[in-house]
Amino acid sequence: MASPAASEVYVIDASDRHHAVEALWREIGLPSLDGKAVAIKANFNSDDPFPATTHPDMLEAILARVRDAGARSIALGERSGMGETALVLKNRGAADVAARVGAEVTVLDSVPPAGWEAIPPDGLHWERGFLVARLFREADAVVQTCCLKTHRFGGHVSLSLKNTVGAVAARNPGNGYNYMAELHSSPHQRRMVAEINRFFPCDVAIMDATEGFSTGGPERGNRIAPNVILASTDRVALDAAGIALLRHYGSTPEVMRGRIFAMDTIARAVELGIGVTSAGDLRLVALDSESKNLVLDMRRILDEAA
Where does the DUF362 domain lie (predicted)? Predict the structure, then answer.
């Protein structure tokens, strides 16, 4: 699909999520998880069904793959921005899936002060820095799964980089400072999103684009059905591919215009060394014939917007 490059994004037909996750995992060739403590960050921002939130089948496929890879422990950590986290996890089926697979659920809203690591504001657009859950900072490995969505509240897109907002404290449990109010009122919101990822480790990110929102979002919008799942060890590459996929279907003016790598979140993530630096260093790999034509068009979009 392209010349050898710095980062690869694998794309596969999504008709069978369990098969797709297994094939993607094998292709990426991740280090062994045997005996490791693994933290999972999914997407449960609101009490709305997929593609607003992670599909139960996707969550189960990932948790089962991590378990079968020999993980010593598995913890699903989440903070919902548009609902009560524990209730969202229950209603969206995540709590039941975790129980079946043997994963622990951590509701980040209930984590005590000792469970947060303070990130200082030095060199960031965050006025006071922010708090990130130690669950992810201290895990031996982190696996993330996100959805394919636009974001009408200033984020423009809600993909893997934006998904890490749910690992940040809404308020400081010590002094009550509201980090989310600062984030959502700042003209630097999209750059601030990228900055979270500098302090959020991630071994692999999996984007469930079986369906998505091409406008609106994050909890509702115009539905599209690409019927693919994407995965990469590089969140910048994955999000750039996700934006190309949204452009394939037609999206909001903010998503459609300009160079993909000039978009605020992508550009800031590149500055911080979080991932690939250009579309030319991104290799799209179709793992089956069903996704090949879509991948060819995504490649064309990436090259045109380089």
Answer: 38-243
